[in-house]
Amino acid sequence: MYENGFGCTADPQKAAYWKERYKQELAAHPEWKSRKFTTHTRKAVMEDYNKYGVIPTLPKAAKATSKPEEKPAPASAPAAKPIKKPAPKPEKRPTPAAKPVKKTAPTPPPKPKPVSKPAYTTEIKTDEIGIDGMFEFLDADNHYKNGNYAEAYRLMERAAEAGNKKALFAFATMHENGKGCPVDEKKALYWYEKAAKLNDRAAQFRCGWFYFKGIGCQKDEQKAIFWMEKSAEQGYADAQFVCGVMYFNGNGCTANPEKGIAWVKKAAAQNHPDAIRQLKKLYP
């Protein structure tokens, strides 16, 4: 403007000054070429305006011939590393409980065979004749046969108390059947046992039967087998059959079928009907 006189008087000195100033400023501030730092440019212009009263016209920045700087492509995010999935932990299976070791129990010693209670026994007077009170017994027997049971009972009691073996058995029978007295099975057993101890085989059979069935006493199979066998040994057929059954079944004794059958055969040999019938079942 100073050089051409636009808006002012032409002044070559001022024009040269501003050209030189422009070069200096441009050299000091190369960024002016891009017109970016406008704030700084305005400040410099305003300082010059305040100093010289003129706003200088800044030349336009020359077009850049070089290609615009390519902005570096934003760094691509590093390729994500493949996430390694943790290998599945092997499923913990519960450890099977150890089977308890069966301790082999020591072989127990063989159990002893059960020992039966001591067999019943009592003294039997085999040498006792038992004829005391014989006359009382004979009189009592006559009254009994004639149906005079009261007098028979009175005389039979005297003979039994004297120890007459036949009277003892007969007196026990009168108590069992209620002849000349009320039925009293307990007393009957008492007198049967007295006769049995004098080795009366019929009385021994009755004692065995009473104890076997619990008649007039508490059931006692040991006493039953004892008296039954004593009678059987004397050849009493009824006793032989019952004794055989008891040995066959183990009543009051250790079961012994062979011995039982042997007693039944002895009873059958005397034509005992029950023994014969039983043998036919065993040996059809």
Describe the structure.
- It is a single chain.
- This protein is mainly α and 284 residues long.
- It has helices at 12-28, 38-52, 134-145, 149-161, 165-177, 185-196, 201-213, 221-233, 237-249, 257-269, 273-282.
- It has three domains: 1-61, no CATH class; 120-213, Serine Threonine Protein Phosphatase 5, Tetratricopeptide repeat (Alpha Horseshoe), CATH 1.25.40.10; 235-284.
Task: Reconstruct the topology from this structure.
Layout: H1 12-28, H2 38-52, H3 134-145, H4 149-161, H5 165-177, H6 185-196, H7 201-213, H8 221-233, H9 237-249, H10 257-269, H11 273-282
What's the short story on this structure?
This protein is an all-alpha fold and 284 residues long. Helix content is 51%, strand content 0%.
> Which oligomeric form is depicted?
single chain
Number of strands: 0
Structural class: mainly alpha
Separation of the first and last Cα atoms: 167 Å
- Tell me the number of helical segments per DSSP (H or I, 4 or more residues long): 11
Q: Which bin fits the share of residues in helices?
A: 40-55%
Q: Beta fraction of the residues?
A: under 5%
CATH homologous superfamily title of the largest domain: Tetratricopeptide repeat domain
C-alpha Rg (nearest Å): 74 Å
Inertia-based shape:
rod-shaped
Strand and helix order: HHHHHHHHHHH
Q: Could you name the ranges where pLDDT drops below 50 across 5 or more consecutive residues?
A: 114-118
Describe the main β-sheet briefly: none
- Please name the CATH topology of the largest domain: Serine Threonine Protein Phosphatase 5, Tetratricopeptide repeat
CATH architecture of the largest domain: Alpha Horseshoe
Mean pLDDT: 80
State the CATH class of the largest domain.
Mainly Alpha
Integer count of domains: 3
